[in-house]
Amino acid sequence: MTNVPAASRALLILRTLAKAGAPMPAAAIATRVGIPRSSTYHLLTAMQESGFVMHFPEDERWGLGVGAFELGSAYLRHDPLERQARPLLTRLVRETETKLPAVAQLGILQGAELLYLVREVPHRPVTLVTEVGVRLPAHLTASGRAILAGLESAQVRATFANNKSFVDRTGLGPRNLRELTALLREESAVGFSAEDGFITEGYSSIAVAAKNHLGLPVAAIALTLRQRKDSKAINPSIQVRVRAADRLNVVKVAATQAAPAPVAPEAAQENK
User: Residue 264: exposed, middle, or buried by beta-carbon count in 10 A (0-12, 13-18, 19+)?
Assistant: First the structure.
């Protein structure tokens, strides 16, 4: 029973970090939990080795690790999130299938991968690789980046700590942390993420993050559709890729302007 106090303190640290919503200094964690700093450092080190917390040396802060996220994801898979999301996915598919048949999906982040939990298809099937239970590189999926865009930059850096995380499928998409960070910044500004052939050639996806009561992303909802080949085809990711410097500024001008006053005949004669 000697480990019970330590286990209780570890759980308090996890709960504190979860409520904070962002990485914290060890001293602040110790104060919030009410335990000595030395004990806090020992617990954080042990929890880091188990993957439940992450240390960000450049910021001298600690945050939740992949292990903690997997526990939360396991709970979500056991029903609540799926039960709430399925009616919404069904409605999205039914409202779009007459003009633009698309597959609606719910996914969660697990490390550097996106795990698909729920999938709704139109009456006219669309063949995809994203079946329920499939994991795909998060940086290539619209859903993965929709979640990543809502995380602290330190968490993104820790998740993609080396270039091995940047798996390539079709030769498209961010290839390193610098490119991913730039893309996440653009997508965060527009409020959604999109990909065009990053996962499967000929298919595009648009996704938005589903957030909890603290405003933190816990999942993402995406629509995936086959690209049209006619003249009306629109690439949904074009909006995301437009840089701020390339956008047009709309300036209001008067619809009509007053005509110049007519010159009097006498004045015209004098000017000759």
Answer: exposed
